[in-house]
Design brief:
Order of helices and strands: EEHHHHHEHEHEHEEHE
CATH class of the largest domain: Alpha Beta
Structural class: alpha/beta
Length: 229
């Protein structure tokens, strides 16, 4: 039997660059994998500042709100070595994260390049993508170090990403579970997709015009784009 040909429906058929977030986007948030990362963040702060778990959690959330990422807060307030921090927090058990042949097929059907764009480390992104069985589908990873440790949604990493990988914004799609992270991309002319989140801080604002499309999850949204001839 001849395999069915697969192509992406319009208006996405002419997309040249697919820029995809990692945590809670490439894999379903229901896996609660990022909870394990956050637990390691708390432990790092406990040990660094000699505080209890409750105070560590409070500081973690405060730094995230005020600095974009917990890491950025720790760098700016405490001079933390980012590489040591990232290695510590991403030393997590990936059990429950299984290979997805369906996601691999969906990514393979997309025209153009695929880039992982994450506030996490390259090592973590690669480890997760390999566990899912989709690492081969990505042409590049743009991580927090590539961004000079300046996190999304600040505009600088988006401009760095575009410059480094020669991305033409009007022919690019950015997919992320945090609506605020879509705003700089939309301002640059990229098409945006918000992967719906249950977290209050990840929701779009009432007057936001940065969310062009909404996905319940990455896989089902990608599969909805694929036509079979």
């Amino acid at each position: 039997m001849t395999p069915q040909k697969r192509r992406v429906s319009r208006p996405f058929r002419d997309v040249e660059s697919w820029v995809i977030d990692l945590d809670n986007t490439l894999y379903p948030s229901a896996l609660r994998l990022f909870d394990r990362v956050e637990e390691r963040m708390g432990r790092f702060i406990e040990e660094l500042l000699a505080v209890d778990a409750a105070e560590a959690m409070r500081l973690q959330k405060q730094y995230f709100r005020e600095h974009g990422t917990t890491l950025n807060g720790l760098i700016e307030r405490h001079g933390v070595n980012p590489e040591a921090y990232l290695a510590f927090i991403h030393d997590i058990d990936l059990s429950g994260l299984e290979p997805s042949a369906a996601l691999d097929r969906a990514l393979a059907a997309l025209p153009g390049r695929k880039v992982l764009f994450t506030n996490a480390s390259r090592a973590h992104a690669l480890r997760v993508a390999e566990r899912l069985g989709v690492a081969r589908r990505f042409d590049a990873i743009f991580d927090i170090a590539d961004a000079g440790y300046v996190p999304k949604p600040r505009p600088q990493p988006y401009r760095r990403l575009i410059e480094r990988h020669g991305i033409e914004p009007v022919r690019a799609v950015l997919i992320d579970d945090i609506a605020q992270n879509l705003e700089p991309a939309a301002e640059l002319g990229m098409t945006t997709v918000w992967v719906r989140s249950s977290e209050n801080w990840a929701q779009p604002t009432a007057d936001s015009q940065a969310v062009h499309h909404v996905a319940e999850d990455l896989l089902s949204w990608l599969e909805s784009l694929i036509e079979r001839d």
